Amino acid sequence: MNPSESESIYRGQFCIGGITTRLTAASAEDANLLASLEPFRSHAAVPNIDISVKRVVDLSPVSGRQLFNSGTTWELHEVESGFQFDFHLAPFGLRSFKRLLVDHSFRDATLLMNDECLSDFRWRVPPLGYPVDELLITHRLTQERAIELHGCGIVTADGIGNLFIGHSGAGKSTTTRLWTATEDVEILSDDRIIVREHPGQMRMYGTPWHGEAMFASPASAPLTRIMILEHGHGNVLTRLSPSQAVAELFARSFVPMHRHEYVESALEFLQSVAELVPCYRYSFEPDPRAVEKILNLLD
To answer: How much is the pTM?
Structure first.
């Protein structure tokens, strides 16, 4: 989807988790990438997702069958051509200040910016401001052998890829700080990691959506092992069976739940992850011994 040929065309492009997204707009401002996306800027020839950004005078009322409502920032409806995401901000009341229309395969999208709302707003509202970018990527992942997980990815100097999975408060940022204080490591993310399948291996990717420790890298690394974090005593590792691992990983994944096929494909993919990658429950204490325990681990 592109602006008409009579308009100037500006483009921005980024890649997250192996998914390249291209923005096309009639103004440079609307094609500019967010600061958080700049490290992920890409020049790939063929994007996986094409987004056309357009300014409209106003947006029609929300239509279609409602699939989800966050209660605050966004809602999702199914329409004949695919899906419609509507986004809200408190200053605009019930009006949608932007709308994302996307096909069923999450390849072609139009992002409509509501000028009636935005023209008098004192701050610039970027087209891909949160949560648009993450929503688009997590939905696109449903079409691939990949998933986003709530975790921090830490790569040691010798290339060992450790993925620490946990709900908010489980210790992901603490774990990140412990490792960076004592070891020469690369942090892919301290909060959200994308795992995807490559021939013969699983690979983890950093994302722009960081946690308290503020690490967000566009790099990737082979996934060596997974630890399910929980606070405890003694830094105890317990190997999980594949079925146990799938349940723990799914509970900490970002899977759109509004379609059963997305859930089924996520569970199938996580089964493959659990069969290829050793997975442990890690009851840890927040001190350097927690790092030593993993460094000395022999799977």
So the answer is: 0.94
